[in-house]
Amino acid sequence: MTKAQRDITRKIRVLQHGQAIKNISKTCRFFGISRQCFYDWQKAYQQHGEKGLINGKPCPENPTLRVPPDIEEKILYLRKTYHLGQLRISWFLERCHNIKVSAGGVHGVLKRNSLNRLPRNTKTRTIQTHRYAKQVPGHHVQMDVKFLTPLTLPGKRIRRFQYTAIDDATRSSALKIYSRHTPPTKCD
């Protein structure tokens, strides 16, 4: 039995129950529907017969919102070849092809082509990101301070602070240990 046939059967049963007991409020409570819904079904059944009881789509599909066929081919190629998820396909298209398609748009393409589920044996991939993309050395320097574990000498406790500076372009680093953690120390 198809979904349309199940809908028709259920709605006819509700309508027949309402006619049998002659109390629409009790029928609606019994079947868990609103009175407005009952009257809409009754009107549709009187006007169109069983065809009026089939659930239709709320609005027609808009073809102008669809992803173009050439981009759809790229999405399907990435899914079949590399088993990427919808978000990664969206990132890849924007980064490599300068094509902006939302993750929802990618999901729509995959769902239309029955590729919305990855195979069970697909391994999860780690995201490859380029965190450090500065081109000019010294343009962006990352600075960190680490509090070293206190050294204990007889009767004295010594605290030390490790300052590390890393250049994002060359990844070269400078490290120095200080006995104080004050603003003049940071400028040395």
Any overview of this molecule?
44% of the residues lie in helices and 14% in strands. The mean pLDDT is 86. It is built from 7 helices and 5 strands, in the order H-H-H-H-H-H-E-E-E-E-E-H. It has a 3-stranded antiparallel beta sheet with strand order 1-4-5, with no helix packed on it. It has 3 domains: 3-53; 63-112; 141-187, no CATH class. By secondary structure, the protein is α+β, with helices and mostly antiparallel strands. Helix 4 (69-82) packs across helix 5 (86-97) and helix 5 (86-97) packs across helix 6. A hairpin with a 5-residue loop joins strand 4 and strand 5. It has helices at residues 3-21, 24-31, 35-48, 69-82, 86-97, 103-112, 183-187; strands spanning 141-147, 151-153, 156-158, 161-167, 173-178. The N and C termini lie far apart (80 Å). The chain is elongated, with a radius of gyration of 33 Å. The longest helix is centred in the first third of the chain and has 19 residues, at 3-21.
